Amino acid sequence: MTVTAFSPANSVTTTTAEKFIPEIWSDEIIAAYKKNLVLANIVMKMNFKGKKGDTIHIPSPTRGSASAKATTVAVTLIAATETEVQVSINKHYEYSRMIEDIVEAQALNTLRNFYTSDAGYALAKQVDTDLIQLGRAFNGATVGTDDYATAASTTKAFIGSNGTTAYNSSTSNAAALTDAAIRRTIQRLDDNDTPMDNRFFLIPPSSRNTLMGLARYTEQAFIGNGTAIRTGEIGNLYGIPVFTSSNADTGAGTSGTDRICLMGHKDSMVLVEQVGIRSQVQYKQEYLATLFTSDTLYGVKAIRSAASSGAALSSSAYALAVPA
User: Fold this and answer.
1) Are 304 and 266 in contact (CB under 8 A)?
2) Residue 66 domain flag
3) Residue 95 has pLDDT above 90, yes or no
4) Which of 26, 98, 232, 271 shows the smallest number of beta carbons within 10 Å?
5) Together in a domain, 148 and 289
6) What pLDDT is recorded for position 51?
7) pTM above 0.85, yes or no
């Protein structure tokens, strides 16, 4: 006798109940989040997930120096009071949508795809924004109305045309990026004994447009590989990977349109994640709708951003002001 398996046509399946399976949302959002991150993928990243507390302490030891050894004389001891960098985990951002039942019943599945992609993009943009804003405070700048320099002679950020003239946010004297400015900024990192590896150069679309007009930048030998355009990374300048982001700092200066290029080292700043991207779905009967929320909890901090003469040797990132 043949037994036919019971299979009702109207069963609730993983397809029909997909709005109540948060893992689907999470996977898509995490994928979109990682795809849209730029600076967060370049700088130091620390995992603080599952741990309690609102502050993480990162030791910041002082570099030592070698001493000449004299015959029959004891070695020279090095003793320094070490410091630390404290990273406050105080940034909690969320992305929420209330999806009414009528929408769920009538809309195409592509609606969910848009929401998950948009959530990942929005959260990634916020993380990158917080990191990019740190670049505004490197080399002694104070973020505010007149954040980069209070006078033309104040050296905090530099303009893109030569890399030596101070950027004055009160007059918005930004200038288009040039090869001379790039080379001068590289020299500043070299002079500060910044490691050659793990450097980066983040630029806005306007500066990418400028670079594409420089013959030596578009030469294969100068780029260093056969593929000039890749996701996030668009090439290589003097051994430094170049990244472009439409999220590069805007709103600088009196004009409100100046942008900032940021050249630095991976260890110049840190991103600490306590709660990674997570998604939650809850049915709200009183609204006959499904509440979808994605959020993340993290903290960012500049590690080597000091300025002024003696302390400048510890700076590992510099900003170049360019027009939009």
Assistant:
1) no
2) no
3) yes
4) 98
5) no
6) 86
7) no
Please, which residues have CB within 8 angstroms of residue 130's CB and are 6 or more apart in sequence?
91, 300
Q: Give the domain range for residue 277.
A: 18-45+54-59+83-130+273-299
Residues 6+ apart with CB under 8 A from 24: 18
User: Do 256 and 145 sit in the same domain of this protein?
Assistant: yes
- Tokens at 166, concatenated: 């101070």
- 195-200: list long-range contacts, CB under 8 Å, 24+ apart: 195/265, 196/239, 198/265, 198/266, 198/267, 199/239, 199/240, 199/241, 199/263, 199/264, 199/265, 199/266, 200/39, 200/42, 200/43, 200/240, 200/241, 200/242, 200/243, 200/262, 200/263, 200/264, 200/265, 200/266
Same domain assignment for residues 254 and 205:
yes
Residue 210 pLDDT: 85
5-59 pLDDT, tens digit per residue, is 545 566 556 566 655 555 666 778 888 888 888 888 889 988 888 888 888 888 8
Count of domains observed in the chain: 2
- The pair of structure tokens assigned to 18 is 């997909």
pLDDT tens for each residue of 114-143? 888 899 989 998 998 888 888 777 776 665
